[in-house]
Amino acid sequence: MARALRLEYEGAIYHLMSRGDRQEAIFLEDADRLDFLKTLSEVCLRADWRVHAYCLMSNHFHQLRGQRLTFDTSLG
Asked: Of the four, 38, 57, 67, 72, which is 20 to 30 A from 32 by CA?
């Protein structure tokens, strides 16, 4: 059964978290963390995301992420 769609709101900030299976490590060394941050940076540029904070642990990570606000110049 499919999960319900996630609701997204313009300007909202979301807490994302991902953990390894059976709490296994997802980052084995610092190079893994650097690769993750490089990839995250590339995706943020493409998707227009903004990461407000993050925490990389050996077996999981947390992010506070949102989209940039889109300003309608015709309103003002």
From this structure: 67
